Amino acid sequence: MKESIERIISLKKSLKINSTESLFLFATNENIDGIDISADEVLNLVSRGLFKSGKLTEEALLIINNDDKVKPLEVVGPTNNPQLPKLNPTSAAIVKRLATHFIAKGIPMKEIDKLNSYSSNKLSLPFMYLFLEMFPTKDKSKNKAWEKHFGSEWDNVTLRRITNGTARKFASIWKTKDIGLFLLGTYIFIKSSFNEKSGKYFVKNIENYLAEYQHWYEEASDMLEKGELEQFTKQYKVKSENNNTTVL
Known about the structure:
Elements: H1 2-15, H2 19-29, H3 39-47, E1 51-52, E2 55-56, H4 58-64, H5 89-102, H6 109-116, H7 125-133, H8 144-150, H9 164-176, H10 179-192, E3 194-195, E4 200-201, H11 206-225, H12 230-233
Antiparallel strand pairs: 1-2, 3-4
Helix pairs in contact: 1-2, 5-10, 6-7, 10-11
């Protein structure tokens, strides 16, 4: 028992993950179910290349099973590895908050596998999935989280779709921008499309949004500089008369 606990703690420290994530990796390795883990914790494991398609990756298996030929994964900063996301503590907290609303039930691995054909950077795929989930779809079964969060039914065409052009643009943004501020800018863009008179959202498609994303990115950046992002990192909700609910 003591040895198992020590191994869980050791893995936590070497990979700089939390206790739940470390326990989840060990439990998955032993085919043990029932570990409560949040969507953003799963997102972190996927982005770190430790968990994919509902199972541990080869890298994770080698580390957990103490293969002497493999050293623990080194945590490389964004400045040293362009494949890692550019994030600061505030924007990282925003990504986690967005994840709790739009991918609260986790990311279906089949969806990540679909996105895999559009990008060679597997670390970016969970963030790309979160980006897409902020756009509505006419498929009611897949739009529940969107409609619950924004407090409005979507009765228009599907906007949640990926194309080669969209993937290339996302990859370019990933390399040059803080991905947390980009996702926050996207969220602000969606919120701004609400029409008070009709009580509905009129969202532009992804291609049109990406043509003007810089404006919304700068809005998010300005809010960060002014210290105005507390509303997006604190856990509370705001309701208006028209039920246009939630500021993260």
